[in-house]
Amino acid sequence: MREPEANQTPSPHAGEVSAILTRAQADPTAAGDLLPLVYDELRALARSRLAKLGGRNNTLEPTALVHEAYVRLVGANDPSWHGRGHFFAAAAMAMRNILVDRARRKASVKHGGEAQRVDADPADIALAEPREDILALDAALTKLQQVDERKSRVVMLRYFSGLTAEETAAAMDISVPTVNREWKLAKVLLKLELGDGR
Fold first, then answer.
1. Which of 17, 22, 21 shows the shortest CA–CA distance to 38?
2. What secondary structure letter does DSSP report for 173?
3. More confident residue, 119 or 193
4. Global pTM?
5. Distance set, CA 171 to CA 27, 72, 73, 132, 197 (Å)
6. CA 75-165-47 angle, 5° bins
7. 145-168: burial string, b at 16+ Cβ within 10 Å, e else
8. CATH top class, domain 131-198
9. Whole-angstrom Cα distance, residue 91 to residue 105?
């Protein structure tokens, strides 16, 4: 697990995003005003997630991932995001779920799911190999969440949301040294669980 890319500069719309998120708690339709403000950050987050999965076997584009994640976020019955960090953590979780669902579907197709009997030469059939590591990472994160919720949240915010240690500390209301300690321990636990140093 590599260190996430640090957010170099805060969003120029950070204050406006926070105001909309606060409004969205009382008026869910206010969430619709978010996309123009957070689109570039979400797209960078999506591009980063997809790059870590390897581009050659991935047919999902960052734009499609952003739009699907945004639809899931805004379509939630009770978004109640508590600030920018919480929103981006929810966006990262939505992206993770989308990528895991796609990997599972591809693995299912590869192993006979949705199979229809046809007469064909096996050499004529090309099927992209699913990236099994997203499934392994998802399983490892699920296990970590059951064992230690706080470490799991730190991973979601640092790795999937791309937040800095300072932003993660603010989002979780804990100290930066605690975030750094939990991040280091979580990486060790995940590497042990994955078993191959990924």
1. 17
2. T
3. 193
4. 0.61
5. 22, 21, 18, 31, 29
6. 50
7. eeebeebbbbbbbbbbbbbbbebb
8. mainly alpha
9. 21
* The pair of three-digit structure tokens given for residue 58, joined into one six-digit string: 């991935």
Residue-level pLDDT at 7 = 44
pLDDT per residue as tens digits for the range 117-159: 555 444 444 434 444 477 888 889 899 999 999 999 898 888 8
Q: What are phi and psi of 75, to 5 degrees?
A: -80, -5
The DSSP symbol for 59 reads -
Task: List phi, psi (to 5°) of 34.
Answer: -75, -40
Which residues, 6 or more positions from 132, have their beta carbon under 8 angstroms from its beta carbon? Answer: 103, 107
CA dist 5 and 159 (Å) reads: 8
- The type of residue at 166 is E
- Token pair 């706080």 is found at 150
For 5-41, what is each residue's pLDDT tens digit? 444 445 556 677 778 777 777 776 776 777 777 888 8
Average pLDDT over residues 95-99: 85
**Which sequence spans correspond to the domains of the chain?**
13-91, 131-198
